[in-house]
Amino acid sequence: MASIxxxxxxxxxxxxxxxxxxxxxxxxKRGFKRKIDARRWAVEKESSKIxxxxxxxSSGSVTIRERSVPWxxxxxxxxxxxxxxxxxxSLRVHVLPKWGPVQVxxxxxxxxxxxxxxxxxxxxxxxxxxxxxxxxxILDDAVADRLLARxxxxxxELPRKSRRKHVYLTEDxxxxxxxxxxNTGGAMGEQRGLIVLMLGTCGMRWxxxxxxxxxxxxxxxxxxxxxxxxxxxxxxxxEGTPKNGKSRTIVYPDALDAGLKKLMEGKKDDDLLFTxxxxxxxRRTNPNGRGKWFYRACETAGVPHMTIHDIRHTAxxxxxxxxxxxxxxxxxxxxxxxxxxxxxxxxxxxxxxxxMRDAMNGILLQNVLKMYSQDVTTAS
Length: 380
Description:
Structural class: mainly alpha
Strand order of the largest sheet: 1-2-3
Radius of gyration: 31 Å
Largest sheet: 3 strands, antiparallel
Distance between the termini: 95 Å
Order of helices and strands: EEEHHHHHHHHEEEEEHHHHHH
Number of strands: 8
Helix content: 40-55%
Number of helices: 14
Oligomer: single chain
């Protein structure tokens, strides 16, 4: 049980509580001006031990920088390398310069809100939300380790992310872009043209395409197995699992037959399907770093400027226009759920809504006509 005793200071008599942590370690809480306040605090502390809610306030002196080390180590184990790199950068660039030396017990919601608001005026919503998430995650771990009773930054107002409007190419524009990519130079250009055409018709991600092995392509059934991705992290390329962690099999159109078969000639099943100049993974940018071939190809083809990832939207558009249902589109794109596909590409399914309206109009109109004809008969 806790005990209360008094002691003298230059400001008069004060009280302290001597108590034990759940592990049996003796500790002291000083500075109470009234004995009744010390007694209330002691009762609450003893109650927290009984209910498993004890927080060792002395441990709250650890800083955000110190707590970030085990948090980041945990993330290295649990997330994809590309995600880890993004989190590590956010921690280093945005979180530690502001909060690194601050003790976890001294973090208050108001100060964090001011930081978020200021950062939102300088950086994109995505960057701000990620930086806040890193800080909040570190403090969540502090709560779990009983260094804090609660996370003081939960509930901070965050900027709203605005979704960029998708760019959908027509079939003619897609083939024009593929030709422009093909003309960016020799054997490398051949591969670039083919991979852009593949992205625009199959809907895979760039990392999924460049990570393909020859054995992943079944030319007889027109199927491609996607079970890995190759992600560029600066100058390094890291191979991992697809975005949702699951492999999937997709279909590809006959238009890719000739190009794929030519690319596979003389290669073994374990060989990379697409290769860079050094025989390793094909990269988004030129090996010599002089300009971006895809950006120049967009200009040559006369199509809107976009990222390579954006071509995937064209594939989604072509699938919907071909009559594919949302589950088929979901599987082809590798979304985690059909709801996600509908959310991301809601504009592509407007025609479905119009079709539903026309069908309902046909059904209801027949009944409306019957109803009015009956009214006319009754009135006569």
